[in-house]
Amino acid sequence: MRPFRWYSITVPCPAGMFFSFLLLALPLFSQQSKFSFTRPDLKLLDDANELERQFERKGLVYQEPALTGYLQAVADGLQAGSPAPARVQYRVRVLRDPMINAFSLPSGSIYTDTGLLAQMENEAQLASVLGHEMAHVAGRHAYLQNREIRKLSVTVNLLSLTAFVPAGQILGAGLYIARSVSGPLATFAVFGYSRQCEDEADRNGLSLMTAASYDPHAMPSAFHLLDEKLDVEPARGIYRTHPSLKHRIEKTKAIADSKPAASQRTTAEGDYLAHVADAMCFNIEADLDSRRARLALARAKRLAEWKPDAPRYSVLLADAWRGLGADTAEPGPTELTAEGKAERRRFLSKMTAEEEQAALLAKPGGPEVKRANDATAERLYTAVIARQPSIAEAHRGLGMLYQIESRNDEAAREYRRYLDMAPAGALDRLRIERRLDAVAKPSAVGQL
Ligand SMILES: [Zn+2]
Questions:
Q1: Higher pLDDT, 244 or 106
Q2: Highest mean pLDDT: which range of 11-20, 95-104, 253-262, 296-305
Q3: Spatial distance between the Cα atoms of 253 and 84, rounded to a whole number of angstroms
Q4: What is the mean pLDDT of residues 225-236?
Q5: 192 CA distance to ligand 1 centroid (A)?
Q6: How far is the CA of 136 from the centre of ligand 1 (A)?
Q7: Which of 15, 84, 218, 356 is the most exposed place for a label (fewest CB within 10 A)?
Q8: What does the pLDDT average to over 376-405?
Q9: 112 CA to middle of ligand 1, Å?
Q10: Shortest CA distance to 89 belongs to which of 146, 59, 134?
Q11: pLDDT > 80? residue 319
């Protein structure tokens, strides 16, 4: 993961800076009713369709019909029966990607990353994101911006995208594929559109929301969520790279304040979580794989508070505490300083996970933090097992916790229990068998 924020990416990447400047300077032509397709437009549409095929072929689309159906229903509600523009069909899909991002293609396909779904709190906030993206499609922003880029003979410099997301990780995988298919589409997905286009998408998105009886204040509150927490973790929240989040929060709040508050539907967090919980579970695991244990923890807490008796959420919560290692759950005061932030970036960009943990452990208080985190994880795992001994994942997590604490006999015992209980086709069976070999070797295996 690369920790650059929008304002920092412009420093190391002059091309990115130039491009962002260009986007701000572009005029807005969004007379969609008069829109007539040119050859470059049709090429962009072809590229968008190819991109969708690649997402599908490379297994990046999160397949959960109930969730996809729910998202589509929210989008359909926003469209409210009005006809889609020519060559547009609104379709919402989910990408298996813990980045906090959503983007649309000119064909009308809207992709939300599992990371964005995990960040939203309720349906109204989700609707604000979908409404914004639908407004980009209806405004033909991708086509118009693509024409401007061509007119100015600007080559989209993909170096800035390379700096943005790491190779070989699930984090940002969608953008890597997009980059290989279409520079302009990948760039729009990362950097958004011109200031005017973004303002228009916010305004029109808000109108779609209010027409569908959502509280329009959910849009600024969604923007706020995209900004929050990401300081805690130097995780890129791409969505907030759209012009200026602060500007957008102020502007959309002012518009929302001016709308009548009558007949707004209630959108409770629990109702939303019921739809997105499985995708959130996937995303928590992906966050942990991407060294974002704090985000994983914040999300697992939400699920565990929502359903305290669900063993799956308690196990994920324990996994997140274990994943923190010697890191604190919240940033300390020094971490919020410029030097502290720079250090976090260095950890992520220059160190392996093991090196990072060693550096954290070497800090004053590091060992105590790790002990406390591990103790919390152990307490959660054992509580789950006490209630339901057959939850295989709790044994796996406990085994990994014991292994890292060099409690090898206990680790071997838990790995064996996991292997006994896990389904025959469990994907990580081989991995756990190897771990068992590693911890069982030095001791008398038969007695464990
Ligand atoms: Zn946008």
A1: 106
A2: 296-305
A3: 28
A4: 52
A5: 5
A6: 7
A7: 84
A8: 97
A9: 12
A10: 134
A11: yes
Closest among 441, 407, 435, 408 to 419, alpha carbons compared:
435
Distance 27 CA to ligand 1 centre (A): 16
CA 90–ligand 1 middle distance (angstroms): 16
Q: Chain-wide mean pLDDT for the chain? A: 84
Residue among 185, 158, 193, 147 nearest 54 (CA)? 185
Spatial neighbors of 18 by CB under 8 A, at least 6 apart, are 157
Is the pLDDT assigned to residue 124 strictly greater than 70?
yes
C-alpha 19 – ligand 1 centre gap (Å): 16
Q: Tokens 């502007």 identify what position? A: 251
Cα(104) to ligand 1 centroid in Å equals 9
Query: Which has the minimum average pLDDT: 141-150, 340-349, 361-370?
Result: 340-349
Q: Is 203 left (phi over 0), alpha (psi -120 to 50) or beta?
A: alpha
CA distance linking residue 155 with residue 162, whole number of Å: 15
**Phi-psi sector, 406: left (phi>0), alpha (psi -120 to 50), beta:** left
Nearest to 225 by CA among 278, 305, 299: 299
pLDDT at 186 (0 to 100): 85
Give distance in angstroms: CA of 57 to centre of ligand 1: 26
Average pLDDT rounded to a whole number, residues 133-137? 96
Long-range contacts of 68-74 (CB under 8 A, 24+ apart): 68/92, 68/93, 68/94, 70/275, 71/112, 71/126, 71/130, 74/123, 74/126, 74/127, 74/130
How does residue 128 score in pLDDT terms, banded at 50, 70 and 90?
Answer: very high
Q: Compute the distance from residue 251 Cα to the ligand 1 centre, in Å.
A: 14
pLDDT band at 444 (very low <50, low <70, confident <90, very high): very low
Specify the pLDDT at position 297: 96
**CA pair distance 41, 143, nearest whole angstrom:** 6
Q: What is the number of other CB atoms lying within 10 angstroms of the CB of residue 212?
A: 18
